[in-house]
Amino acid sequence: MTSTAVLEAIVEPTRRQILDAVRGGERSVGDLVEIVGMHQPGVSRHLKVLRDAGLVEVRSEAQRRLYRLRPEPLKELDAWLEPYRAAWSGRLDALERHLERTSTPIRNTNTAKEY
To answer: What is residue 38's three-state secondary structure?
Structure first.
């Protein structure tokens, strides 16, 4: 079962933007401030929510705090969504088969040669 904290964390667009930023590797708070265009206290509040949900982890390096993605909670969410993706895929396949059976091919009536 997907954690409510994870869902509540990723519903906010700035937090998703932060997750996108740390997806490729560690980022300092200063980097994240620049990326999301928000003041440092605001970014820190979002990072706390993401950390509490288990979506990011932090380590210290000298005076800097570096954040990185913890993908495990997102893997749980992905596993929960899988049956829904399969159901939609099956419906889209059925629609494709229906359209192939019932559609009339479009004939090209243009006989002039293009130069």
So the answer is: coil
- In our burial notation (b when 16+ CB lie closer than 10 A, e otherwise), range 46-65 reads bbebbeebbbbeeeeeeeeb
Answer for the pair 19, 50: CB distance below 8 angstroms, yes or no.
yes
Confirm if 35 and 17 have CB atoms less than 8 A apart: yes
Return the pLDDT at 72.
94
**Cα angle: 5, vertex 77, 66; to 5 degrees:** 65
Helix axes 40-52, 13-23, angle to 10 degrees: 80
**Interval 31-90: pLDDT, tens:** 999 999 999 999 999 999 999 999 999 999 999 999 999 999 999 999 999 999 999 999
Alpha helices in 24-113 (DSSP H): 29-36, 40-52, 72-102
